[in-house]
Specification:
376 residues; alpha+beta; Butyryl-CoA Dehydrogenase, subunit A, domain 2; Butyryl-CoA Dehydrogenase, subunit A, domain 3; four-stranded mixed sheet; 8 strands
């Protein structure tokens, strides 16, 4: 596969916006309040328009991943890039293909394109995570529609969203819960939106909760096929999010590597082992960028990139070890955005470690159960 590494006009526009509106805000990575003025500046520049991202290059997901990388590497913030990425993935990849059945599709989509509205995916629940076995929110059938009851939490962009793609139980299929997804407006009677959760990482990306008490929606608010939300929507979105998230992560890796190289340049070259340590960080960064592009472009080509995502996690872990070794060897102390993003990368590694381990165990079981082994 050949990947075009030429920057798209969309990426160039993001670099300009990041330099003008994001990088000058020195405390953005410690800010608990979402910077709506920056968000609106991105909207005014056309950078919140999912249709513009989809048409910017030959690969939609690659464009999102690479533009998110630019936001981080030029803007010096990982949290805002997470919110920007989720805005595009939920609106452009999840909701937009299913909007044809919505009575409000035209008006809603115009607001999304202008950056006036963002849509939040609501799956996870308190004490349940996103595991279908433990999810409890329900959508009871009523005349002409459904009534939604339950609570959703850890919602990226939840506090600033104007609409929610809510996944709820609508029945049972083959002895298991069957889920459907619904588009729920923020102003729906019975819907309560919580204040932002005080998370210590990915600032200023807002995360929150919503509670639903008999929120009524019409049949036209059903997203996709009734009872098929998990296989058709939730599971593919998980893989999509993991794949495209490699973009902003490599943006943070690039920013940190550049900060380390700059600090090293101020010091005398010193022992060869210190230069070797910096070289290791640089090699891992460039390799991760290459792998990220391959993963993101593979999504659009319908390739099975699950193994590559797992390998990317291992590469990111090696990068964090290499950075820590370099800091220890040189006595360099990172500060500002580089230090904040390094902490964010460590937090991200911890959050995904359990799920990645379970996936590797499954692969290991399949390998051990194989009947034919090369060389035997």
């Amino acid at each position: 596969m050949t990947i075009d590494t030429t920057d798209t006009a969309f990426e160039v526009k993001m670099a300009e916006a990041a330099a003008a509106h994001i990088r000058p805000v020195a405390d953005l990575g410690t800010c608990s309040e979402f910077p709506l003025h920056i968000w609106q500046a991105l909207g005014n520049a056309g950078l919140l328009d999912p249709d513009a991202a989809a048409s910017a290059g030959p690969s939609h997901c690659l464009t999102i991943a690479r533009t998110a990388r630019v936001l981080v590497s030029e803007g010096g913030n990982l949290g805002l890039s997470l919110s920007w990425m989720i805005h595009h993935l939920v609106a452009g990849c999840l909701v937009r293909p299913r909007l044809c059945r919505q009575a409000c599709a035209d008006d809603l989509w115009k607001q999304v394109k202008r950056g006036e509205t963002t849509i939040c995916l609501a799956v996870s629940e308190p004490d349940a995570g996103a595991h279908p076995k433990f999810l409890a929110a329900r959508a009871e059938r009523r005349s002409g529609g459904f009534a939604l009851t339950g609570e959703k939490t850890y919602l990226t962009n939840g506090p600033i969203a104007d609409a929610y793609a809510v996944v709820a139980i609508t029945g049972e299929k083959e002895g298991k819960k069957a889920f459907s997804a619904f588009l729920l407006d923020r102003g729906t009677p019975g819907l309560t939106v919580s204040d932002p959760m005080p998370l210590p990482f990915f600032k200023p990306s807002p995360h929150g909760s919503v509670s639903m008490n008999g929120c009524e929606v019409g049949e036209d608010r059903l997203l996709g096929n009734d009872g098929e939300a998990f296989p058709d929507l939730v599971l593919p979105f998980r893989h999509l999010e993991d794949a495209v998230m490699t973009g902003p992560v490599t943006g943070a890796m690039t920013f940190i590597a550049a900060a380390l190289a700059k600090r090293m340049g101020r010091l005398s070259p010193g022992p060869p082992e210190k230069l070797e340590a910096l070289g290791r960080v640089k090699v891992l960064t460039d390799a991760a960028v290459f792998l990220s592009d391959r993963i993101a472009s593979g999504i659009d080509l319908k390739d099975n990139t699950g193994y590559l995502v797992l390998y990317f996690r291992q590469m990111a872990s090696q990068y964090l070890t290499a950075v820590n070794d370099l800091l220890s060897a040189t006595g360099i102390c990172l500060d500002g955005p580089a230090a904040i993003m390094l902490a964010d990368l460590h937090a991200s590694a911890r959050l995904g470690k359990t799920v990645a381990g379970l996936k590797l165990q499954k692969i290991g079981r399949q390998a051990a159960a194989a009947k034919d082994f090369a060389g035997e």
